[in-house]
Write a structure and sequence with these properties.
This protein is α/β, with parallel strands linked by helices and about 450 residues long. It has 13 helices and 22 strands. Bound molecules: N-(aminocarbonyl)-beta-alanine and zinc ion (ZN) (2 copies). GO terms for molecular function: hydrolase activity, acting on carbon-nitrogen (but not peptide) bonds; metal ion binding.
Length: about 450
């Protein structure tokens, strides 16, 4: 299969230039001009940007959570991904007491092999060390191509939290085996204390979700994770950072030369905690919650200076009726929101409006996640890379509506958001999967991304 994308402006993490791309057998095999068009599918990208597909390094598809399962399975979630220019998703399979890492991953891989419409990789959440057997499996997991493990410092009652001793064991074993540890940082004991108090006082609206886990609750756990990673000199990736104090601590640790990476999400860049005062505030309930304006300003500043490494979504949508379980008690609201289809359009629209450069958005959403997590074939428009390509129209106006999304959920926190510019075509390894508003891919096209460990 030969594909030529011509006359577009190629955007990488470091440069933008006009050139044509020749794709053969799913790979970018040449970049230049005047390629022989015999037998080729030729796509004219005049006036458009040609970008590497985004890598959403944080999704929860078909995830059992909050008394239900997240609304997008692998088919719906990756169909939506394709339509938003995301060509690889990183999902988070959940290891549970008594089960192994490879076993956990393979159960999910089976689902993906049938359903995934874009490529996929896994970070494995570790919730129990099984008397140490899990640590012995890290090396096998890395050889398998799963080179990152996630620890929750929160969700104690849900049986997902690891204590500090377990965290340090994981940090050390990850370092030894060439893996990296991802952390969800919030302080569970303070959250529980606050929840108990608010419920006793009859304070049950979504606003109290925020007040039970405000800035300092995240900051303490961020700093604790950073402290342990620094102490044992292990790599650390802080997921979905939303608070200024923790962010500043992470930036300071990075500047001191520690191997620390920072992820934030579009919802923290767009919304503040004020959304929890809205009538539909429960739809915005995710953890960590959106924070105040100062935190949001700090996130944007860190995006601009280069201190934040990645933007990913934490895509974990639930249906309205499930969010409604918490109408009269915020603790019953399943945590999580939709975003996989909005990540690249939102960030690229920010570039189109001059808030960031297009190169920086490519760096945050494609190049850096590929580099940090060992996706050697992805993350750039360059010869030898997978032909994961997005054609982007800077002139197209788009309003996000539940009716023009491609997931299975029934509402979105992004409803009514106006974007300047929008992806018009997405290719996964040279296969067209999205064409001007329509999903044109197929389930099962997505392949497992076998990642390289850290050297
Ligand atoms: O609210 C969220 N973020 N739900 C998904 C699970 C997690 O904490 O990442
Ligand atoms: Zn999390
Ligand atoms: Zn998450």
């Amino acid at each position: 299969m030969k594909l030529i994308i011509k006359n577009g402006t190629i955007v990488t993490q470091s440069e933008s230039y006009k050139a044509d791309i020749l794709v053969e057998d799913g790979k970018i095999c040449a970049i230049g001009t005047a390629f022989n068009e015999d037998g080729a599918n030729v796509v004219d990208a005049s006036g458009k940007l040609v970008l590497p597909g985004a890598i959403d390094a944080h999704t929860h598809l078909a995830m059992p959570f909050g008394g239900t399962v997240s609304a997008d399975n692998y088919l719906a979630g990756t169909r939506a991904a394709a339509c938003g220019g995301v060509t690889t998703v990183f999902d988070y399979p959940m290891q549970r007491k008594g089960s192994g890492i490879i076993e956990t991953i393979e159960a999910r891989k089976e689902m993906c092999d049938e359903e995934a419409c874009v490529d996929y990789a896994f970070h494995c959440c570790i919730t129990d060390l099984n008397d140490g057997a899990i640590l012995d499996e890290f090396k096998d997991a890395v050889d398998y191509g799963v080179t990152s493990f996630k620890c929750f410092l929160v969700y104690k009652k849900e049986g997902m939290m690891v204590d500090d001793g377990t965290l340090v064991k994981i940090l050390l074993k990850a370092k030894e085996t060439g893996a990296i540890t991802n952390i969800h940082a919030e302080n569970p004991d303070v959250i529980d204390l606050n929840i108990e108090k608010f419920l006793k006082e009859g304070k049950t609206s979504a606003w109290y979700h925020y007040l039970s886990r405000p800035e300092f609750v995240e900051a303490e756990a961020d700093k604790r994770a950073i402290h342990w990673a620094k102490s044992v000199d292990a790599p650390l990736y802080l997921v979905h950072m939303a608070d200024k104090e923790g962010l500043e601590a992470a930036i300071a640790a990075k500047m001191d030369g520690n191997d620390i990476y920072i992820e934030t999400c579009p919802q923290y860049l767009e919304f503040t905690c004020d959304v929890y005062k809205r009538e539909d505030g429960r739809n915005f309930v995710c953890s960590p919650p959106m924070k105040g304006q100062e935190s949001q300003d700090a996130l944007w500043k860190a995006l601009k200076t280069g201190a934040i490494d990645t933007v990913a979504t934490d895509h974990c949508p639930f249906q309205s009726y499930e969010k409604d379980w918490g109408k009269d008690d915020f603790t019953k609201i399943p945590n999580g929101c939709a975003g996989v289809e909005n990540l690249y359009p939102y960030m690229l629209s920010a570039a189109n409006e001059g808030k960031l450069s297009f190169n920086r958005v490519v760096e945050l959403c494609s190049f850096n996640p590929a580099k940090i997590f060992g996706c050697t074939e992805k993350g750039s428009i360059a010869v030898g890379k997978d032909a994961d390509i997005v054609i982007y129209d800077t002139e197209k106006e788009f309003t996000i509506l539940i009716d023009n999304m491609h997931s299975d959920y029934d509402h979105t926190i992004w409803e009514g958001k106006k974007l300047h510019g929008y992806p018009v075509m997405t290719y996964v390894r040279g296969n067209l999967v999205y064409d001007n508003g329509e999903f044109v891919g197929k389930p099962g096209l997505g392949e497992f991304v076998k990642r390289e460990g850290r050297k």
